[in-house]
Amino acid sequence: MDRLRGQATQVQSSLGTLLVNLENHQHTTATNDELASLTAANQAMRDQINQALKTLDIINNILPNNTATALIKDLAGVKSQLTHQRQAISQLRQLMAAGKTAQARRSINQLNQAANSLTNQLDEAATTFTSNVSPSLDDLTDLISRHLSDNDTAISSLRSLTPQLQAVQDAGGSIAAISKGQVSRINQRLDNVSGTLRDLNEKAAFLNKKNLKQLVKLLGRSPQLANLLASPTQLKTTEQYHLKLFGYAAAPFYTVLSMWIGALLLTVILAWRYVLESKTRLHPNLIQTYVGKLTLFLGISLTQTTVTMISELLILGIRPQNVLAFLAIAYTTTLVFTIMTFSLVFLIGNAGKVIAVLLMIIQIFGTGGLYPLETIPHGLAQFAPFLPFTYAISGFREALGGTDLSVFSQDIIRLLGFAAIFIALACLKRLVGGPVNWLEKGMKRSQL
C-alpha cells in the first residue's frame, strides 16, 4: 500500500509541477517529461492492481468467502479510477499541446480531486485486506496442516499439488505490494507453506497404487481441492471499449490513410489549373481558379468517401457505436484532406505533391495510428499534435468505441483548423507565383 501511495503522491506532485509551469507559461520539455511521468505512474499502478486481482482470485478459489470478494470489488473500483485517470491524462496532453491553458488548468484540478479519491479507495482496500483476507491465508495453512496430521499416507500422494502451492507462494509478492505492513506476516506464512512443500516432496517417494486410491477418495470428499487441481486459475475478461475484433482497432488508421491517398491521387489525375484555348475570352482570376477547381476536387473526394463508408458498414460489417459521428468524422476528414493537398499543389505546383507524400509518410509512423505514441521515438511523437492524422484517427476511434462528445468535438474543430490554415496559405499564391512558374517551366524543359 505504501508503494501505491507513493505513486499516487508522485502523480499529485507531477500535477502540481504542471500547474506551476502552466501558471508561468512554461511549455517546455520539462512539461512533456511530467506528462510522461504521469503516464508511467498510472501504468505502474494498473500493473500492481492487476497482479493483486490475480492473487485474490487464487485465494478465493481455495477458500471462497465474501470478504475476499469485497476486496476484489474494491480493487476493481481502483482499477476503474486508474482507467479514467489515464484517459484524463491523455486529454490533458492534448490540451497542453494545443495551448488551451484554461481548460488544461481545469483538467489538472479534476485530476487532483480524482487522485485524492483514489487514495481513499486504496485505504479502504488495505483495511479490508488486513481485517478479513489475511485471516483467510491463515485458514489455508491450517487446512494443509490438518490434512497432514489426519492421514500421512494420503498426503504423501499430493505431490501434484506442488505447482499450485508454489503459485500461492509467488502470489505473496503481489499481496506485499498492496500492503507493506503485512510483509512480515505473509513471509512467515509462506515459509510454513515452503516447509509443507518440502515434506510433500520427501514423502512423494512412497507414492504407490494404494496411495493413489486413497488420493481419489480424498478428492471425492473435498470438491474444492479437486476444483483447484482441475483449474488453478481463472481468466476473466472485461471489455472496456466496444472494439471486439482487431479490424475495429485498425479501421480508423487505414480509413484515414485511404482518404489522404485518395485526395493525393486526385492532384495527380486532375489538372489543378484551367487549360483554356487562346481565343477564349474567359480569364479566371486566382480566386475563381482556386474555388472552381477545389469544388471539383471536393465533389470527387466526397463521392470516394461515400463509397468507402458504404463498403465498411455494409460489406465489411463494421458496427460503430455512433453511426452519425462515424459519418461526420469521415466527411470532415475527407474535406480537410482535400483542401490541404489541393492547396499545396495550387500554391507550389508539383512540389506540393512531394510535400503531401512526405506528410503522409510522417503521419503513418508519428500519429499513434499503428503504435502508441509512447512506443515510438520521442522526437517523432512530438509532431503528433501538429498533424491532422492524429485528430482524424481519434475521431474515428470515438465513433467506433463510444463517443465522448468533448473529445470528438475537439477533434472536429482541430481538423477544420487545418483546413483554415491551408486556405490561408493558398492566398500566398500571388507572392510565390513567379518562382513556382519558373520551376514548373524548368521541370517541363528537363523532360523528367
TrEMBL record:
* Coiled-coil blocks: 101-128, 183-210
Q: Kindly list the residue ranges recorded as spanning the membrane.
A: 253-275, 296-318, 324-347, 354-373, 412-432
How this chain sits in the membrane, per its record, is: Multi-pass membrane protein
Q: Name one GO molecular function term.
A: ABC-type transporter activity
Keywords of this entry: Coiled coil, Membrane, Transmembrane, Transmembrane helix
Q: Which GO terms describe its cellular component?
A: membrane
Q: Where is the ABC-2 type transporter transmembrane domain?
A: 71-427
Record's InterPro entries?
A: ABC2_TM (IPR013525), Phage_infect_YhgE_C (IPR017501), T7SS_ABC-Transporter (IPR051328)
Extent of the signal sequence: none
As for subcellular location, the record says: Membrane
Query: Could you tell me which NCBIfam families the record lists for this protein?
Result: pip_yhgE_Cterm (TIGR03062)
* PANTHER family the record matches: TRANSPORT PERMEASE PROTEIN (PTHR43077:SF10), TRANSPORT PERMEASE YVFS-RELATED (PTHR43077)
Protein name per its UniProtKB record = YhgE/Pip domain protein
